[in-house]
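Chapter summary example.
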Amino acid sequence: MEKEKKKKSHFPFRLNFLFFSVFLLFSILILRLGFVQIVYGENFKRDLERKEGITVSNPVPRGKMFDRNDRVIVDNIPKSAITFSNEGFTLTEMLETAEKLGKLIDKKTDKLTDKNKKDYWIIKNPMQAEAKITRKEKELFAAKKLTDQDLYKLKLERASDSDLNLSEEELEAAAIFREFTSGYKFTSQLVKNENVSDEEYAVVSENLESLPGVDTTTDWERSYPFEYTLRSVLGKVTNSDEGLPADQLDYFLARGYSRNDRVGKSQLELQYEEVLRGYKTKVKNVTDKAGRVIESQPVSDGQKGKDLVLTIDMDLQKAIDQIIEEELWAAKKMPGTALTDRAYVVLMDPFTGEILAMSGKKIVKDSSGRKVMEDDALGTFTTTYNVGSTVKGATVLTGYKTGAISPGTVFDDAGIKIKDTPLKKSYAYLGRLNEIEALKKSSNVYMFHTALRIGNAHYEYDKPLNLKNLQAFETIRNSFASFGLGTRTGIDLPNEQTGFKGMSRLPGYLLDLVIGQYDTYSAMQLAQYVSTIANGGYRMQPHVVKEIRRPASGTEVLGSVAQEISPVVLNTIDAKKEWLNRVQTGFRKVMQEPGGTAFKFFEGAPYAPAGKTGTAEAFYDGPLRSRFGEIPPSVMNLSLVSYAPSTNPEVAMAVVVPWAFQGDDDNKANLKIGRRVLDAYFQLKNR
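The structure predicted for these 687 residues follows.
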């Protein structure tokens, strides 16, 4: 009996101990859970709710441009800027920030539209805006027959003039709010980057904690140390308001651009956009479920754009610009120059294709009606003209290649008369001459006979003329194209024009074609053509970029070479050396022997030039064309191609002066410009 009592007395104790242990463990667990919830709860909750945001790219300065002597042509000027990034804020929150920022900075309001003002008023006055929606419209919305967008449009329509009677302070806030909402989520948007004062920059920087999404940073804008020299070729960059060009939006978005990025929109800035743009700084934003940024993680450091070293010598470019301006103004004082308004010059290395200078000047009227000179260097490859006898070197070589003539072939310079057409002749009777003398004295008739033979035509004075070779036009044009005439030169700039090709196949136009009075050519094409003759028959691709350089580091002016643009031979003209020598001899006589059409202007030139002059009868098709009705006036275009020295040439030149004069007046602007340009080149070289 005692034994049983003993056993029973231990059971309650063990049970109590078990209950106590369980109670103690639960207490510890509860304490631990409480500790975790109180101390780490927010962190764990944030970790559960966090999600990866998009990668944000921050812009970097564009690459610079230098001339061939390493002088800066296009630079970046840093300037203070205030930006905003929408990190998931509501419209109300952005409006509150805009109002706070408006008290710290001056913001122009001239770009505000009525819609911008209405947007601001609706967000700022939600109750008053809501009162403009009728009960019936709210019922339609509840029945899902009207959308949020429909209701918002109604609020916009019903906002009255009195609602938009905003104070100056409210207008500034509305202008800032407009900038906030014009960007994209997680994309930096410029709020103000013009005339940001030191005081504004400092006070905004001090208050960034109370301005969510706002930041102070450094922006840039393009600067031009040589001012307007070559500006039309250097190109333009879109501003912060323009962003990506609308017509190229998909192209740029597919390459990782943001819609408000500034990009090259013309010429070199556009052509080399991928080089100049650089690599943006990339940051990955980590957001919570509400879309708010809770952490930013660097992904990659940015790198400014690569620099371009151009083939252009800016001293030479400026000198040629001045020469053209002076000679154009001088020409305008002479009779018959009412329509004269422009001139073009291209200097090219005939062996590498490097463009040493490309100058164009055009007389226009400014806003006050005063005549002024503006840069038109683009016209050297985007406009084409009848150029006249400068193409005769290509005609002679085409005659050789087709077997129409051979070295030493002689023709009489008597005029050609086709039935029912005016007599086609040279400027004077030049006697019997071979191809060298024909080039020296610029015989039209010699070229006519060459064309007749290419066309396999039987000629009799004042009789109808028929071409047996119906492919004569194509034969001549294809041969001319091998020199660069009537085709793209391949220059590394957009919008190059090939020229106009006459449509008629009447035999008389074949004769006009071989003396440069039917198809049209650009100054750049003429420079490529004469370079092909100068260098022994190689058509070189012209280019204005010499090198691409990596961004400079430290105090260096230029970084290391990333790419060197090598000379490119587009084709050879398949001409015998003897043929080229004879054409080169004719070109040399043009400038160095009495009787040559350019001798009077180049007599005594120490650099021994060779070349060919050109005068073309043409019809005016310039900016005043509409004044003359259906029949435009006839004009004379002047041109000149040259290279120097005549042996071992180092520079090739083309000069075009469209609509140089009317009637019998001749101002010789092509020769005056050409002589001064070559003088300037060799003087600068010697200096």
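To summarize the output: The first helix runs from residue 2 to 49.
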